[in-house]
Amino acid sequence: GTPFVYEVFDVLEIDGVPVVDLPLHERRARLEQLLDTKDSTIQLSAEFDDGQALYQAAVEQGLEGVMAKRLSSPYCEGKRTKYWLKVKTHARQEFVICGWTKGQGKRSGRFGALVLGTYRGDELHWVGNCGTGFTERDIDALLAQLKPLVRAACPFPVAPKMPKVRKGDVTWVEPRLVCEVRFAEWTHDGHL
Q1: What is the pLDDT of residue 180?
Q2: Confidence check: pLDDT of 33 > 90
Q3: Which H, E and C letters describe the chain, residue by residue?
């Protein structure tokens, strides 16, 4: 009983004849001619000239991102090109630093990722780990602030089960420092 609309955005072949070498604007014009205007369940996806406004609307609606396509571009099967770009949106939020995971490889002796939490009421909940975007200088500065806060006990009511992280490879800290993290989205179970 849920209404649906199938949005079409490109055509690669018409009546057995490939059209991939035609520019996008021409493929879309041909696709539009194929559509039955009386059938509202299938429609041509909208085009937008103002990419900045479209991106901002995607951010406000919590969408994954937008596709930017050059109208003069051919269809390049299986290749990444400069003609079609996926422009991802990113959320930003502050999180409490609750510990760090043991570093490996180049980061041996340092941290691999920060263990992050957020408060729900008075209770601290694990939301995920953040291990990218740090320079060596960032890591050293963070460790200088975190080491005095080391504690034996996990600050969460229940120690989180972190994928690919052994229990003994986490150093817990007093939850006093906050960091801002840029991330793609929340998972269905409330993790980054």
Answers
A1: 93
A2: yes
A3: CCCCCEEECCCCEECCEECCCCCHHHHHHHHHHHCCCCCCCEEECCCCCCHHHHHHHHHHCCCCEEEEECCCCCCCCCCCCCCEEEEECCEEEEEEEEEEEECCHHHCCCEEEEEEEEEECCEEEEEEEECCCCCHHHHHHHHHHHHHHEECCCCCCCCCCCCCCCHHHEEEECCCCEEEEEECCCCCCCCC
